[in-house]
Task: inverse folding
């Protein structure tokens, strides 16, 4: 999961006011620029190397607090003096935020024209339009789902947080103005909104995590905390000065805030239910650091350091550039990039900072100095709208397919492989294969179970579910029934600490499957799961743990043998794993070979090596558990590599993405491993006959 953000910046000294009606702007606080540096570098490191800085995504929340504090301070001070101007406010936002955004959107569009396939470019057009209208969070919210395109393939994913801030900028001045005109305490309005937004976020974390992530309703409280802090500093300057005027007190607040941020950045991870309650720590930490003032310990000696201040000044363009560059690396067809990905990501981090500095120096600073504010802002805004229109036209033109050579066009259409290959339908999503939280008391429908004998039970995650299409064909010819109990991210381990896609713990998920096995006593239980990635068993340091995996599976085997001793267990080993989707691997191969070339039926191009290691390990270790091991790897691979397709059409590819089998791939695999499954059914039947015969009079 990615977690980016941006910020409003007011980091120039306050000019002298010509009259009481002249809008004023904040004096400069270098420590806030230093705090921006912490935020942007955290996000940058998280996106490049999330295992090294697992909580770096909280940089988003830091930005939100900073924006709320600075923007609200300006609004409050000008409204108090009756010098607030909506025109001045939005002109300054336009000059500050839009120029670099326009350049980044245009650069992404140019990249897409030359490097993306039609459906990819069409999707980019939609995101360009969303970025230009500050609605990216709503578009991404609508797109999100279990089978959505990976976030690493969306160059403008990071604009969701900019959209939320701009939505805040539209609402907050209006609320403040109404409160000032009605002589209401805006603090009360602020606190009510913060509490309501926080409660809404907690509720959504339990009902719709995608909404909790992208909705302004569940995110405004973070910006609102900065606003409430600004109100206190503005309305109670004497009390504030008394608090931070005591050096030890200010230092303690600064240090506590910094520790809260450090803990969040170093120890949070994507496994947390975030934002939710956990977001309180980085939000309150950022607020404490800002509240402590520029002379406090951390603020003065760390955040006000000239390097931190310099990075903070260019943090907004750094942020805008970093994610498209990382996405370009993820989408790259170059073998060099995939083979040297660490060095490439380090280079991207450096390039993001360089482009941030160039953008600040050549675009942001010159635009600030132009005095024709209103005309310039109108021109900038018109340019942004033109870009948004170009994005909409790209969508209507279906991504301009005529740009792409004929032999690549059909493969290029596979931008959402799960939809293209109808993967959900093939594995019976949300009926037998559950990938979302289901209503209380939900039970799989009758079609997921069979009363036919002999009976095969399919148990595991989406890799196990991908066996269903081929198993179904085999069942019709071999004459056995199928019970399917699979779930998204539901590897077959009794682990109380990890959640499956339906929000049940793996323990509860597999207790449910075990109960079904206990009641139905299947003749054969077929199991499989993705041994790497999010479904893997990990060591304490976060690496994939083969021995731990074997121990977890051995526990599952023991439980099955105790519950249904007559059931024979078959483990279908891991499927070949490709570097990106198999469609992209095929495209990359064809791009680097003469026009008219065909992808080899078996190849090592784009094939990851670790699955062979797992297959070798399981081949020796699994039979010792009393389980029959069936090697999918050996069935799909030979000395030349692994099987890429079983026919001439794009739909004949063997993998939907990097590893899940297509319907064609599943059916092919079962023709190869079907005899082993039938042999287990025969062995189960032979074992049952003497027991049955002994009961006869």
Result:
């Amino acid at each position: 999961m990615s977690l980016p953000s941006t910020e409003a910046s007011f980091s120039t000294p306050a000019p002298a006011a010509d009259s009481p009606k002249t809008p004023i702007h904040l004096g400069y606080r270098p420590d806030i620029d230093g705090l921006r540096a912490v935020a942007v570098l955290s996000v940058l490191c998280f996106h490049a190397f999330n295992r090294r800085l697992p909580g770096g995504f909280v940089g988003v929340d830091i930005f939100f607090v900073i924006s709320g504090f600075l923007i609200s301070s300006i609004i409050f001070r000008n409204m108090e003096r009756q010098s607030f101007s909506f025109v001045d406010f939005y002109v300054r936002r336009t000059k500050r935020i839009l120029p670099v955004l326009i350049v980044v959107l245009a650069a992404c569009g140019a990249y897409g024209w030359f490097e993306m396939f039609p459906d990819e470019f069409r999707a980019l057009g939609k995101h360009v339009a969303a970025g230009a209208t500050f609605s990216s969070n709503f578009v991404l919210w609508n797109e999100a789902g279990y089978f959505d395109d990976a976030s690493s393939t969306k160059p403008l994913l990071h604009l969701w947080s900019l959209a939320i801030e701009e939505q805040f900028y539209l609402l907050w001045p209006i609320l403040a103005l109404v409160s000032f005109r009605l002589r209401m305490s805006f603090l009360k309005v602020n606190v009510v909104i913060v509490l309501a937004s926080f409660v809404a976020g907690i509720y959504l974390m339990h009902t719709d995590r995608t909404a909790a992530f992208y909705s302004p309703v569940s995110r405004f409280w973070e910006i609102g905390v900065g606003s409430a802090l600004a109100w206190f500093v503005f309305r109670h300057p004497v009390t504030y000065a008394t608090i931070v005027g005591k050096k030890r007190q200010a230092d303690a607040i600064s240090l506590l805030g910094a520790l809260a941020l450090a803990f969040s950045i170093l120890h949070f991870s994507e496994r947390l239910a975030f934002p939710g309650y956990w977001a309180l720590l980085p939000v309150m930490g950022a607020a404490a650091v800002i509240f402590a003032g520029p002379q406090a310990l951390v603020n003065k000696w760390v955040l006000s350091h000239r390097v931190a201040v310099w990075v903070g000044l260019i943090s907004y363009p750094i942020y805008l550039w970093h994610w498209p560059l990382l996405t370009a690396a993820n989408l790259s067809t170059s073998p060099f990039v995939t083979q040297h990905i660490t060095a490439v990501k380090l280079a991207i981090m450096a390039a993001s900072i360089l482009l941030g500095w160039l953008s600040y120096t050549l675009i942001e600073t010159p635009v600030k100095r132009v005095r024709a504010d209103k005309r310039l802002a109108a021109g900038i805004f018109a340019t942004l709208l033109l870009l948004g229109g170009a994005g909409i036209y790209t969508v209507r033109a279906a991504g301009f397919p005529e740009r792409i050579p004929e032999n690549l066009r059909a493969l290029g259409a596979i931008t959402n492989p799960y939809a293209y290959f109808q993967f959900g339908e093939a594995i019976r999503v949300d009926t037998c294969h559950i990938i979302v939280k289901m209503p209380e008391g939900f039970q799989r429908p009758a079609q997921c179970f069979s009363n036919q004998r002999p009976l095969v039970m399919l148990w595991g995650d989406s890799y196990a579910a991908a066996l269903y299409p081929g198993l179904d064909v085999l069942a019709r010819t071999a004459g056995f029934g199928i019970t399917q109990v699979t779930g998204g991210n539901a590897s077959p381990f009794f682990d109380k600490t990890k959640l499956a896609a339906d929000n049940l713990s793996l323990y509860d998920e597999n207790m449910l499957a075990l109960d079904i096995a206990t009641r139905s006593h299947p003749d054969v239980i077929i199991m499989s799961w993705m041994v790497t990635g999010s479904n893997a068993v990990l060591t304490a340091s976060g690496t994939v743990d083969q021995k731990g995996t074997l121990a977890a599976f051995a526990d599952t085997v023991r439980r099955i043998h105790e519950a249904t001793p007559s059931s024979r267990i078959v483990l279908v080993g891991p499927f070949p794993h490709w570097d990106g989707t198999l469609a992209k691997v095929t495209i990359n191969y064809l791009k680097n070979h003469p026009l008219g070339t065909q992808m080899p039926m078996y190849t090592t191009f784009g094939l990851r090596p670790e699955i062979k290691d797992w297959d070798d390990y399981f081949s020796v270790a699994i039979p010792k558990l009393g389980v029959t091991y069936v090697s999918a790897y050996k069935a799909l691979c030979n000395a030349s590599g692994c099987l890429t397709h079983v026919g001439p059409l794009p739909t004949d590819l063997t993998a939907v993405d990097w590893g899940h089998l297509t319907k064609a791939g599943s059916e092919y695999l079962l023709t190869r491993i079907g005899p082993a499954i039938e042999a287990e059914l025969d062995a189960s039947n032979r074992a049952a006959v003497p027991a049955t015969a002994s009961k006869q009079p």
